[in-house]
From TrEMBL:
Keyword Signal: yes
Name listed for the protein in its UniProt record: Trehalose utilization
Chain ranges of the ThuA-like domain: 73-263
Record carries keyword Signal: yes
Keywords: Signal
Signal peptide stretch: 1-21
Species this protein is from: Rubripirellula reticaptiva
Amino acid sequence: MKNGFLLSLLACLFAVPCLVAAEPTRVLIVVGPSTHPPGSHEVAAGGRLLQHCLENMSNVSDVAAEVVYEWPKDQSRLKSVSTIVFIGDTFPPQRLPETATILAQLDTLMARGCGIVCVHYATGLMGHDVGQAGEHPLLGWLGGYFANKSCPHHQSIAKIYPSAAITPATPEHPISRGWNEFMLHDEPYVNNYFGADQNRLASNVTALATSMLPTDSPKNETVAWCVERPDSGRGFGIVMPHFYKNWALADLRRFILNGIVWTAKRDVPDGGVQTTLPDLTTFSPAAVEFSEDPRKLARRIVQSAGGNANLLSRFAIEERLNVSDDPAKPGKPRESVFDGHENWWFRGGKGDWKKKKDEPATDLVWAWTLQALVDEKSKLKVLPEIEEAGRTLVGLQVSESISPAMDVYFEKTNLQIVRIDWRKDINRFSNWRQHDGAKYPSKCIGYRKATGKPWFVSEIVELRRLDELPGDLP
């Protein structure tokens, strides 16, 4: 009887191993330094967002994520980590104190099969981080990296695209589960570095997503990849998102979460990771929406027009001016001389010169030359983007040097001036020309805001710079 009881007790003990709690899969999220403007990178908020998503997956259980803002000094915290996620401006170990020590400890972790994930600029290495031929352990751990323009061996390209299509490259891979091609306004790096063999992906590296970039000379560029290393560890690199708001895109978010789960050697569900994301403000970013520094945007606009030295200041134009509601009507000849912001002389045909005082059109022309953007008296403010005729326009509001404030819009892709909204009018520009280093639109049509109808057309026939003002000006 006693033996039977003992056997029954032993059978019960061996039959209930599930009563002993399994160790959760541990994910360490390392947030590195970042100096990007609010709304871009937002690495700390991005790290907290990933932690929330990983710990609230409805179809992958027992994951514990920890966010750190420096490399753990207590090495016991690293022993049971299944994968490490890096987010920051370039590969964080290169920017944190005691880089050599961190890299050595990472080498030990990778050798035991720990996973690694790098998000956006965390895939990046600077020239002083790598050897002359691009040597760096990240290449083996991750399968590739973004080579900053300072690198001696290779230069990747960082450029913001208004609309980039991100396409699955290997749909059968577990990381590709549950997400489809998506479009985003972001900075997917191209010409990423994958090794010395003509930059081909190594045999153990898989392209996961591609995009036809850059838009002016598109090629099928790899923008996300994974590696299965000889040490049994796994790596996943993805060169997005630049803008914090893009974490709201379910396909992008699932893509990244799938990659983290896969590098932790957990099964990725058939439909991909499922998680619910609260409002992006929950994770305390400096800003959800990116707003570029207005002076920086102004400098880019001026540079695209030929630079400060080539902006028009003292110049003469011959134009055809049609003041009517019929844009097709032939214009009458008019000659004008402009000198800086406030001086404008004009004459019809070969008549006498007249000078306009306190004429609003001088402000309009001053903004058209872009001089208003570089004047120290101008107060600049970035305007919300707008869509017009299938184009995305970025805008700057100019005030204090111009009154009332003037809204100036530029095509986002090439930063050419498109329209000026001011007072009662919307002025639209077209027909681009170049003269003596200056790039300018030669045609302007003015529309009344109230009616939307045109009321004048000005088209420049000839433009010339002036070293001196004509002697017959009043």
